[in-house]
Amino acid sequence: MRRASIRGRRPKESFNPRPPPATPLDHFRHRDSDASFASSRPSSVGMGPTSNALDLYKDRSFQQATLSSINSYLASHSLQIFLKFPIPSAKEITETLKFLVARLDYPNPKLEDDLPVILKFLKCPFKPNKSVLRNPTVNHHQWPTLLAVIHWLFQIVLYNDHLASNSGAFVDNNAMSAYALESYSYYISGDDDSVEALDRQFLEKLEVERENAEESIRVLEATAAELEGKMEEMRSGPSKREALEKERGVLEQDVNKFNEMIGSLAKSVAKLEAVLEAKEKELEAKVADTRRICEENEELKKRVELQTFNARDVDRMKRELQAVERDIGEAELARNAWEEKAWDLDTMLSHKFKELETLAMECNQAMRRLKLGNGFQYVLNAKGSTPADMMGIDYKLTLKPALNSYSDDIKKSSVEKLEELISLQQQSSELSATIEGKRNFIATLQSHIDEVEAQLNLLKKDTHDYTYRCTIEARQMMDDVQMEAHNLDILERDAEEILKTSKLKLQETIKQTEEETKKCAYELMTVIDSVSKHKEYVQSKILEMRRDVSESAVAVSDAHKGSLQSQFGFLSHANQQ
Question: How deeply is 83 buried, as exposed, middle or buried, from its count of CB atoms within 10 A (0-12, 13-18, 19+)?
């Protein structure tokens, strides 16, 4: 059961530790064998130095900056080495190279033999001569290449130190990675209780962080809402500039109205003056006509007194008298008409004067609102002969300079208000930028919360799936146990029946085997008798065969001896001859 539960559980994909990324110095973090140094495999980035790099190291200002950075690094390690500008001594160059190579885990190197191999292994793009390494007393032509090699080793040493100092920063500062490592270690060791306790502890920590994040988000949202309310209030409500512009518009309307009133008054005064001049001219013409008529009458009277009258003259005089009477009647009618016109003109002038009085009162009120100063007031004079005498003030000489100064003040105040508006716009832009930053921060917090919630949902889903699988496995195991128990009962019953039948069969087989054993014993005895008889027969046959073989051997030996004697006799006979 324990092994099944351990096998059924799998680590979550989100908590699987990923391998750290490869670094460009991992292949020479520790010193390899000499066989790796002797490898002549070419570099993928090229082996030869570029002309631009060498030209850069030929620059004296760049040389000085490079030497100062190397000297500061050497001083930070409490070394009594200082590379002098423009060309250091051979001892300083040798000690610097030995120190840099030792920082790369190559202690006590021999420069003329080991340094070219190390540079080739590290794929250095610069190739110094062995003679220069053997005796580093260089000139101006050899120094840039050697400085490039020293600077290249110095940069690799800095990178190696950086990796050594920041190797565990990610694991130390990442709670999720630490949790995954600890949980996986408990999982490997099979300690499910510790894993569950760690899960609960981590979930509680996540809940606390989530509550803190939500609280900070609520505070930020309240702050953002307050700032947005202030911003909307500033946008919707009238600003200082708008209020001043509104007041300026009211004042400009008053000034325009005042100018219109003054213009209308000037026009009405000009019209009245024109009408008055026309009436004066008509009056002068009438006076001249009256004088001329009186003079004519006097002359006529004198002529009448001097002349003698006859009937014809009397008739003519009567006719002239009738004509004069008719002219007098027409003149009286014309005088009556002119008197009516004069009365109408007087009534019109009185109405215009009243209108001028009302306009003057309005102008005085407007001037008091404008606070022009110097006590400018319109005081009408009905007996005045000129517009200035009638109005009491000369507009062009007295009121217009004050209005011009007031317009200049309005322009200056508008410029100041414009500057204030620009500053307010800058403040509003800064506020909008801060609000936008708060919104971005809220968005990042929301995304972080969403990620944490997604991880929590994944954890809950995994735990739910795991518990569901465990319950299913438990049910299956219970069903299997019950099935096995049922099968065991069936097997026990079958075993009892088989045992009974096997006992009966055993008894029968025992009887049969006893009978067969008896038969086999009888047959065995018969076989033994036959075998003994056959053995006796075989022994007799063997004796006969031995006897025959011995007889045949004697016969063969005799025959062989005879053949040998015949051969030796032939040879002896040949020798004798």
Answer: buried
- Closest C-alpha among 419, 439, 447 to residue 231: 439
- Between CA 158 and CA 489 the distance in angstroms is 78
Residue ranges of domains in the chain: 26-167, 240-389, 394-521
SS3 (DSSP) at 507:
helix
164 backbone dihedrals φ, ψ, rounded to 5° = -70, -35
Q: What is the pLDDT, as a whole number, of residue 9? A: 42
pLDDT means per 10 residues, the chain with 577 residues, are: 39 38 37 35 40 77 89 86 85 87 80 83 83 76 87 89 68 69 81 85 86 87 85 73 78 80 80 84 86 85 70 76 85 85 82 80 75 63 64 62 72 79 81 82 83 83 82 84 84 84 85 84 82 84 84 80 66 54
Specify the DSSP class assigned to residue 22.
Answer: P
Look up residue 488 and give its two tokens: 């065991």
DSSP 239-280: PHHHHHHHHHHHHHHHHHHHHHHHHHHHHHHHHHHHHHHHHH
Angle 60-76/51-58 helices, nearest 10 degrees? 80
Indicate the fold that domain 26-167 takes in CATH.
Actin-binding Protein, T-fimbrin; domain 1 (1.10.418)
Report the C-alpha gap between 430 and 559 in whole angstroms.
Answer: 144
Taking a C-beta distance cutoff of 8 angstroms, is the pair 118, 101 a contact? yes
Read off φ and ψ for residue 82, nearest 5 degrees: -145, 115
